[in-house]
Amino acid sequence: MQISYFKADRKSIKIEDTKKGEVRVFYPKNTSITRAQEFVLQKEKWIENKVKQALGNVEKHREVFDLESITLLGKHVKIDFCDIKKAHLTENILLLPEKLKNDEEGLKKAIKQFITRFASELLPQATSFFAEKVGKCPAKVAISHQKSIWGSCNAKKEIRLNAKLVMLPKHLMEYVIVHELCHMIEMNHSDKFWQNVDRFCNSKQCRKDLKEYNFLINLF
Ligand SMILES: [Zn+2]
Fold it and tell me: At which of 29, 45, 60 does a domain end?
């Protein structure tokens, strides 16, 4: 297990797993590294589990981490290159322009563009489908590549969805959409809110399953 320690401008010790099986520990300036290490030792089991989970994820989705595949609605779709100008999806291959083969940044950009395009078609459709069922119509549905969340809903009833939702298995994409729509009824995470969400899915299971895919948010 790889653990790195960092002195930080904070009041308590924080342990962070990087989704790739590395662990970072941030500790206050007035705390000794020995104290930080003791703290980590106490949490060893918890950290081990986190790391095991992260490494399992990396293994399961290695091709996605290595930009050899993407997931679309939870299924792995291979990336291949050919003499084309724009990304093109066949039944189970995402074809990309040849010139991106050895250009990691260009490749990430092209995948991101493809995902945005795919999301712009699928997410509004899925949102109106569930809006009708929930009985609330959002004032606006915006799609973007948010940096840390899958979706949000504000007091103006504007819903923002992460384009990478289309990379998730369908039931998880739907869970996030339903979650945000239900915020138009309850602007909180009260029992009443979860009861509404649970009319459409098993929210507890979905929240658990979603953890496996959180790495996608920061992948590109
Ligand atoms: Zn929420």
Answer: 60
